[in-house]
């Protein structure tokens, strides 16, 4: 009988910093695009955009914190 269970993927964190940096850049671009769209938005839409951009800024801070953690882990050889 064959084993139908999949093997778990190895924990490859080697490119996490780069992925997180890309996520920060993409989020910043989304904020800028949203700000540009406010020119044509209603007051209600502007409020939603501002709220969403506030959440995006919180995400950026979290990403940056994670980048610091991952950079430190990389320097320490990813040891737990």
Please tell me about this protein's structure.
- Residues 34-73 have a biased composition (Basic and acidic residues).
- This is Small, acid-soluble spore protein Tlp.
- By secondary structure, the protein is mainly alpha-helical.
- It has one domain (16-75).
- The protein is 69% helix and 0% strand.
- It has 2 helices and no strands.
- The chain has helices at residues 16-37, 43-75.
- α1 (16-37) runs antiparallel to α2.
- The longest helix has 33 residues, at 43-75.
- The radius of gyration is 19 Å and the shape is elongated.
- The mean pLDDT is 90.
Give the strand tally: 0
The span between the termini is 37 Å
Q: Tell me the Rg in angstroms.
A: 19 Å
What level of helicity do the residues show?
Answer: 55-70%
Structural class: mainly alpha
Count of the domains: 1
Sheet-strand content, in percent, reads under 5%
**Shape, please?**
elongated
Instruction: Characterize the largest beta sheet: strand count, sense, and whether it forms a barrel.
Output: none
Question: What is the number of helices?
Answer: 2
- List the secondary-structure elements in sequence, H or E: HH
Average per-residue pLDDT, rounded, comes to 90
- Spans where pLDDT lies below 50 across 5 or more residues: none
């Amino acid at each position: 009988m064959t084993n139908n269970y999949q093997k778990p993927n190895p924990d490859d964190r080697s490119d996490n910093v780069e992925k997180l940096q890309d996520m920060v850049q993409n989020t910043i671009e989304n904020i800028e695009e949203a700000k540009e769209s406010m020119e044509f938005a209603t007051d209600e839409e502007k409020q939603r955009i501002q709220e969403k951009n506030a959440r995006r800024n919180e995400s950026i801070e979290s990403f940056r914190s994670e980048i610091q953690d991952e950079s430190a882990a990389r320097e320490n050889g990813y040891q737990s």
